[in-house]
Write a structure and sequence with these properties.
Growth Hormone, Chain: A; disordered C terminus; globular; mainly alpha; 82% helix; 425 residues; 18 helices
């Protein structure tokens, strides 16, 4: 009979994964702290400048952030399969540290474009990190234990999100937004130092062949994902989810201010903390749910349920209820994350992992880009709540169409639970 390790046993036995987990967790903690500070900073500067639609400023920032990810994402996946993944992970963290440490100085300028430039550069650099990290996990723990590793990673992401929101609130109140960026820069440097000694296998894809060969490598990931019905369904759902959920972030400060009549600087971190706490629970439950009911069924079910969650979130008039619904949204989102990542680890061969996982950041970015453009066009014409509810209704319709029409949803539904996914081997 196989035994299921506890989180601490798994981390103790998997030393290489523990190093990656710790470095990633610290970097994500710093990113969460700086992320909320950046959103509130842009919104504050827009209000101070007398903007009639402050939400448009955050939407513009998201457009500028997502554009380089859309363009560079597939290329990043090919680089991950060709280059030393440890080097990529270290370089990403060092460059992001330098950029974050520059923000407090750029805040003193009267113009906003240097802040937007930093956001674009950070987004471009961070495009490489997710496919490199996700490609490394099966190499470090084995495919048969990737469900446990993904569950730990998902819960840790949520935990750092929660802690980051709380720390951001305290840092902003006590020291100002500048301190959030100093902390983020320090976290990136810590992560880079910790990843230097990480031992990862070399790349799988052949190097050389010039631009034409590299272009074929870039296309190979998309071709492989689209040729597998389950992967096609997952990637299509992933994209459409961010088209409709992507308007959440730029609209949240103005939604809290105009529709709920509360202080966005105070309540937005708490709403996001509640989402993160739900994510901890969803990440922790993810592996168990996949074993119990099947990862494929959980993917389909959550994708159908989440639109109702989105609409309920923006229908309520109480901040307390909104925060409670933030929790349940986090549970759904991170339970889905565990199933999605594990199915991809199982279904994608090692030599293509970088390119297939490299599709996710540009898909997310493109979905967010579409959502941000919608906010820019409709800002001032529609109230934030109206836009958010329309997005939720559109999300529901799309989820039904995809699930009923795509073969991958039926294959995922009939996929048997893989009980050995989180055993120690």
């Amino acid at each position: 009979m196989s035994t299921r390790p506890t989180v601490w046993t798994f981390l103790r036995e998997q030393g290489a994964f523990r190093r990656l987990w710790l470095a990633t967790g610290v970097a994500e903690l710093g990113t969460s702290i700086a992320r909320i500070a950046f959103i509130l900073l842009v919104h504050q500067r827009a209000v101070a400048a007398g903007s009639a639609s402050p939400e448009a400023a955050n939407a513009l920032m998201l457009v500028l952030e997502t554009a380089p990810i859309v363009l560079l994402g597939p290329i990043a996946g090919a680089l991950v399969d060709r280059c030393d993944r440890r080097t990529l992970l270290v370089v990403c963290n060092v460059l992001q540290a330098v950029l974050m440490l520059s923000v407090p100085f750029l805040m003193r300028l009267a113009v906003d474009w240097p802040l937007y430039a930093v956001a674009m550069c950070v987004a471009a650099i961070s495009t490489v990190f997710p496919p490199a990290r996700q490609s490394a996990i099966p190499d470090l723990v084995g495919v048969e234990r990737s469900s446990t590793a993904n569950s730990i990673s998902g819960s840790t992401t949520s935990l750092t999100f929660v802690i980051g929101m709380g720390c951001a609130s305290l840092l902003i109140e006590r020291f100002g937004k500048e301190m959030c960026f100093y902390v983020n820069g320090g976290c990136f440097l810590f992560a880079a130092r910790h990843l230097v000694s990480l031992n990862l296998p070399r790349h799988f894809a052949p190097v050389g062949g010039g631009i034409s060969r590299f272009a074929r490598d870039v296309v190979a990931g998309a071709r492989y994902a689209w040729s597998r019905p389950t992967l096609a369904y997952i990637t299509a759902c992933f994209f459409m989810a961010f088209v409709f959920i992507g308007i959440w972030m730029p609209l949240m400060p103005e939604y809290l201010r105009r529709d709920l009549g509360v202080d966005a600087d105070f309540w937005m971190p708490y709403a996001m903390m509640s989402f993160g706490i739900g994510g901890i629970c969803g990440g922790a439950l993810g592996a168990w749910l996949g074993r119990k009911f099947g990862m494929g069924r959980m993917i389909v079910l959550i994708y159908l349920i989440e639109p109702f969650q989105v609409m309920a979130y923006f229908w309520v008039n109480s901040v307390a209820l909104m925060i409670a619904l933030s929790f349940t949204w986090g549970v759904l989102a991170f339970a889905y994350f565990v199933q999605e990542q594990t199915v991809m680890h199982e279904d994608v061969p090692a030599e293509l992992r970088g390119r297939v996982f490299g599709l996710l950041p540009p898909l997310q970015a493109f979905g967010t880009l579409v959502a941000s453009v919608i906010v820019l066009v409709e800002a001032g014409a529609l109230r934030p709540r109206t836009m958010l509810l329309l997005a939720g209704a559109s999300y529901l319709l799309t989820s039904l169409v995809f699930t009923l029409s795509m073969r991958g949803s039926r294959e995922l539904w009939s996929r048997k639970p893989r009980d050995a996914a989180s055993t120690t081997g």
